[in-house]
Write a structure and sequence with these properties.
3 domains; three-stranded antiparallel sheet; globular; DNA recombination; DNA integration; DNA-binding
Length: about 425
């Protein structure tokens, strides 16, 4: 019998006993061990369990179990009043934004619904109106308020990384033949890193691919970062693992092809299975090179000697086909923050002080909706037309406003007679 499946579900079952089964059902990958949702849900379930046991809240809060009862919270202790009190607890945290409170409560509500289906609870108490009443309303933030790279920002960033890569590649390729080997290696490394950053920025700026589809997500083993074998520069396409949990081809428009082609030529990856955007983190690469060469039978002193001949472990990895991992999604955010600062780009946004990856996708969405309408934009963005219309509703509102203005101007002669 599967040891992870409880054979008895009763009102006296402790809450924590259901958590692992729920998280496995909601997780991704083999065994349900991966995925951002699982990680975030686990955090909120832990918060709820601590609160229910009286370990969170003010000094007067003792939990949902009566004082004269000696047991951990069970499903028998749950009803809509408990979820109402928890909603009030979340809403009372002044450090949380209104939408964040709603998001945190939804994790608990989803678990509650699962518990009904699994037989732990008789009713979905968390969704009852009285339970949800203390939750704050929407804070008024619209899709159009989220960061989207403007054409000026996109041009400024791509121009900066292009000039930076061109200078680094020229400095490497124009070295004299008698240049010191260590100088040549350092120039090669600098050019590779600049070329990688340029290719990454161009892909994020023009393809509208989600960053989780492009790079490695440590919380989802299936998202290990796109590889060279999944890119066809001749066809202008790239295979990515979509948000809808299946592989699909994404378009590579013309502005992306040249940076990728130049970068690939400079790198000359040993195999097609190399990541397109490998990490350049020295600590990660040092450990990787040492472990891989040791697995191949080399002694520690021989490994140290070989590493000493290279200016960077990444260059040794290239020569010996020690395949590095892809840069992570968080790593890409750090890269974009560094590049945004270096390019001195003017950014006025309440949440991000740099050009965030999702802003590149939304920026392309703006371009496509304005140029070709919602249907074409939805296909390019790999979203439903309904969702695209919702996220870019501010564009349609602006266009309708222009039409209203034009209509008013056409009857302007009549309005001139109105007294103010």
């Amino acid at each position: 019998m599967d040891r992870n499946i409880s054979t008895e579900r009763t009102p006296l079952t402790s809450l924590s006993e259901s958590f692992e089964r729920y998280l496995q059902d909601k997780g991704k990958g083999r065994g349900g061990d991966g995925g951002n949702y699982r990680r975030n849900a686990a955090r909120e379930l832990e918060r709820f369990a601590e609160w229910a046991a009286g370990d969170r809240g003010d000094d007067d809060w003792t939990g949902i179990v009566p004082d004269d009862v000696d047991h951990d919270p069970t499903f028998e202790d749950l009803d809509e009043r408990v979820f109402r009190e928890y909603a009030r607890y979340l809403a009372g945290d002044r450090g949380l934004k209104q939408n964040t409170v709603q998001t945190y409560y939804r994790y608990i509500s989803a678990w509650c619904g699962w518990c009904v289906n699994e037989g732990y609870l008789k009713a979905h108490y968390a969704q009852r109106a009285s339970a949800m009443a203390p939750l704050p309303g929407d804070d008024g933030r619209k899709p159009g308020d989220q960061q989207a790279w403007t054409s000026e920002q996109r041009h400024a960033l791509t121009r900066y990384v292009d000039e930076r890569a061109c200078d680094a590649i020229e400095a490497y390729t124009t070295l004299p033949e008698d240049a010191d080997p260590s100088d040549r290696q350092r120039a090669h490394y600098t050019a590779l890193k600049a070329a990688r950053d340029r290719a990454l920025v161009f892909v994020l700026a023009y393809t509208a691919v989600r960053i989780g589809e492009l790079l490695r997500d440590p919380n989802d083993p299936r998202r290990r970062g796109v590889r060279w074998e999944e890119i066809s520069l001749d066809d202008g396409s790239m295979d990515v693992y979509r948000k809808k949990q299946q592989w699909d081809a994404a378009s590579l428009p013309d502005p992306v092809i040249s940076p990728l082609r130049s970068y690939r030529k400079l790198m000359d990856p040993p195999t097609e299975r190399w990541p397109v955007f490998p990490t350049f983190d020295q600590r990660t690469l040092a450990t990787l090179v040492q472990d891989e060469l040791a697995d191949r039978g080399e002694r520690p002193d021989a490994i140290d000697k070989r590493r000493g001949k290279y200016a960077r472990d990444f260059l040794l990895a290239l020569d010996e086909d020690v395949r590095p991992p892809s840069v992570t999604t968080d790593g890409a955010r750090s890269i974009l923050q560094r590049l945004s600062d270096a390019a001195a780009i003017d950014i006025d946004h309440p949440k991000h002080d740099y050009l965030a990856p999702h802003g590149g996708r939304r920026g392309m969405g703006e371009v496509l909706v304005r140029a070709f309408g919602y249907t074409v934009a939805a296909r390019y963005l790999d979203n439903s037309e309904e969702m695209v219309r919702e996220r870019y509703s501010h564009i349609e509102a602006g266009e309708l406003g222009d039409m209203a203005t034009e209509a008013l101007e056409e009857i302007g002669g009549e309005n001139n007679n109105l007294e103010v």
